[in-house]
Amino acid sequence: MIPVILSGGSGSRLWPLSRKQHPKPFLKLMGSHTLFQQTVMRLACDGMEAPVILCNQQHRFMIHEQLCAIDAGAQLLVLEPFARNTAPAVAMVALKLLAEGRDEILVVSPADHVIQNSTALRNTLELARPAAEAGELVLFGIPAEQAEPGFGYIRCRDEFLCNGMQRVEHFVEKPDMVTAQAFVDCGDYYWNSGIFMFRASRYLDELRVQSPAIHESCIRAFEGCSLSETTLRIAASTYSACPDRSIDHALMESTRSACLIPLDAGWSDAGSWSALWSEQDKDEHGNLLLGDVVVDDSRDCLVHASSKLVTLLGLEDLVVVETRDAVMIAHKDRLQDVRHLVNELDSEQRGEVETLPRVFRPWGSCDSLDRGERHQVKHLTLKPGASLSLQRHHHRAEHWIVVSGTAQVTCGETTFLLSENQSTYIPEAEVHCLSNPGKIPLELIEVQSGSYLGEDDVERLGDVPIAATDQATTPTTARIVAIK
Fold first, then answer.
1. A single Gene Ontology molecular function, please (predicted)?
2. Domain harbouring 120, CATH code
3. What is the CATH number of the domain that holds 470?
């Protein structure tokens, strides 16, 4: 079986911690690993191959970093130029495998859910496998124990298959609270976990029947893909024609081959602050406190502090989430409406919807520390052997101060080394490059000053390989200031 891990979505209900460029799968919401890492680890077991990971092309650097952090790898990385939902995404994976003559069982799983009992999940996967091998389209249902209007619901027929599976009768997408409570009281409904199992060819055959437009557009998009050894890049020009539909809507709701197996493994979609509050241990006053938080005479609150001290006094039933660039305060009864707040911010083109202060790049990461009208301060981290492109800026100068590691700097015609507590100045419009020739990460502070500090003020002139240390001039021959 091949795990197909879908790492998409923006997790807008978890704003301000989750952003479009740093979405929910890459956050440490429960435990010491991110949700993406937890997904990879629980699907790394006997009978499973290395995963296929599907993500937005802008997230590939975070995927690489997080896989390396848990000493894991992927057999294939499928990069989408933009989201087209799960039905086209899984079709692209199936087409790639079949093109290699591999018609294997796919276990499709979101990368942003919590499953507390990995053993129970693996046992359920083994129970479902014979049905998938026989051509069934299997989905995993969570017994609906409480009314959740934000979930999808599934009802099964009194038609039993092997290993306790039932034929699916119908789907209901996100009912109102009254209807959701009626489903729970009935006892015949399951939550849709978003986890599926089927053979690659069987999925495509049924997709051709139930959603021919998706099937045809995905074939055209696959023909336009570019492929390296372990990466499949989907071209925007052809992928844009794919209808935006989920597996549920495109296939499962209409096929007669859908069957459900119950999954009792401590599942949560971790999709909102209310879900996180209900899943974790609280103090004696019902508070869930994460980070540097002090509360007094407050009850049933969730407080998440990322960068500074947060205090509460005399409050109840509130959620307070602090990041370096935003603070959200909401009543617990309104948490399903956080996405509406995010939509409003998005319509105003607020940058706080797109990115966190720290962003990842192929060479490392960049953390914004401070910004004014004519200055900006950043913390750069370059991986060993990494290098920024040869470039220049027409409206700003830069000061680089090495915090740790060794920097190789090209400034104009001169190349030199900087070590800890040394710095240099890059004049406006000067051609320059920064590299890390060492074996440990390079950390430095970059101070920008000028009339325009936008990210588009960069003229890239090419890549410069890291020179050998003995070829660089000594620090005393360059414009270097020791920082006392």
1. mannose-6-phosphate isomerase activity
2. 3.90.550.10
3. 2.60.120.10
